[in-house]
Each structure stands twice: as structure tokens, then as C-alpha cells.
Amino acid sequence: MRLDETTVVVTGGTGFLGRHVAAQLAHAGCGVVAPGRNDYDLLERGQVRRLLSDHRPDAVVHLAATVGGIGANRSEPGRFFFENAMMGIQLLEECRLAGVPKALVAGTICSYPKLTPVPFAEVDLWHGYPEETNAPYAVAKKMLLAQAQAYRAQYSSNFVYVLLTNLYGPGDNFDLASGHVIPSIIRRFLVARDHGDPEVVLWGDGTPTREFLHVRDAARAVRLALEHYDGADPVNIGAGREISIAGLAELLAGIVGYRGRLRWDNSRPNGQQRRRLDVVRAAELFGFEAEIPLRDGLRETVEWYEQSAVHTR
Question: What is the full DSSP assignment across 106-144?
Fold first, then answer.
């Protein structure tokens, strides 16, 4: 798909990943429409229809999602399921009815089964149920893959689906109640450092591993997939490397300059024990490989947060 002189709607375009994807597409010559929820509420089907009617896009990139860490997923599983399912299902149906030439849907590594062999390969996606702490969110996002493939089979819709690993970087959500692991740990360490706290308590036991991808790498991957991939099969987007949560915490403590003790609260859930994607398919199909080293990306993220108005509030 040629991106120059095309109009692309990026749902969730004011969000963490959406802002970077919009910038990537604009740089490639697209006319980008990047609405937030205040512009069009994707939970209302009439507003989804109005979005497509107002802008008549050549492509849609669906990034809008209701997301959060383990705590948020455990406290509001119904909302996470309903909102993620309804936004995506209604959007793809309206894309079909409006004749949108192409749509790309961003799924999540959370959709893989709890006991998936590492690294997670796309062929294993349906071989079990996701890890319980975020299963409602994960299943809702996974439903959109089934919808995209069903619409391709029945209506010849060019709907493609990518699975994103855990993202991080400047502009992330640093709210302790709803943020993911990296911004949450950064904020805890900075507060503890500035207040002289002797210890920081973190969830779980630190043994689970996670894979992290810088948001700019992820945005580049989305752009490459939109431009070069037209297949029915899902494609993993990740760095292909994992680190334990304990190792991540030690790395961040060094970057932040926090020298106190780390205490692990074993009464809190660990989540899935290991997560790492097989990223061969993305490299072969549209030439994506992660470029930003984790340490460099973490340092950039800490520096951004320390200098941001969010940190000073």
C-alpha cells in the first residue's frame, strides 16, 4: 500500500502509541486523522460511522483501547472486556460497510495462552486460555483477529492484525493505579529517592520475565505493516528479548539513582511467568527489527518523566 497522498485514520491517535504512529505516517506522506475519545466515542456505533463518513479514509489503524496493569485488569475486568470488544467489533463492521480499503488492528501479547512455549509463535495463539489476571482484556482483543479473518473470508476485506508486546517510552502512563510495570516502577523509585525512603515494595516475587519494546520502534513496525503486509495471519511485533522483573527493577534503580532496598510482596500476583515473542515473521514479511536498546530507552523514559509536568504534579 502506498502511503503518500493517502488518508489514514488512527484511532486512539492522541494516546501513547497513537501519537507516535501518527507521526510516522505523516512523515511517510499520509494525511493523518488522529482522533481521541472526545472527538469520536467508538463505543457509540453512530459515532464510528460518522468518523468514517467525515474523513473517508484509505486505511484505518485501530489502536484505541482500554488498558492498564495487573491491578486495573483485576479491578475492572468487565469494563476492559466490554470496551475493547465493542470498539473493535463496531469499527471493523463500519469499515466493511464503508468500503475502507485496508484496516490494521493492534492486538496484544496478553492474548497468548497462559502456558504458551517461549518464544511465543503465532501458530500457538489459539492453543489455550490467556493468563487469568488479564484474560477478559486479552480475549476481547483476540476476538478482533477472528473478526478480521472472518471478514476477509466472506467479504474479501483487507484487515490485518499485529500482536504488540509490552511498550514503554516517553509519554507513557505513569498513574500508579492504571499504569504498566515500567512507568509504575520508575515513579515509585523517583518518589522513594526524593523522599529518602529506605525501601520500595514491588508486586510479586520478581521472577517473571517480560519483553519490552520502545514505543518508537512499535510505531515504525505499525507503519511498515500497513505499507507492506496484506496477509490473513497475525504477526508478532516485539524485541525478541526478555528480562526478569527483578532485573528490570535493578536496572531502573541504577538509572534513577535509588539506593534503598527492594522488597517483593508475594501476596500480590506475578501474572504470566514468561513472555517473549518469536519475531521472525515480522522481519521476513515487512522487514521489522527492534533498534532501541532497553537500557537506552529506559534512560530516555526516566529523563522524560523527570522533566515532565506529570512528575511535578
Answer: EEEGGGSBTTPPSSBPGGGTTSSPBPGGGHHHHHHHHHH
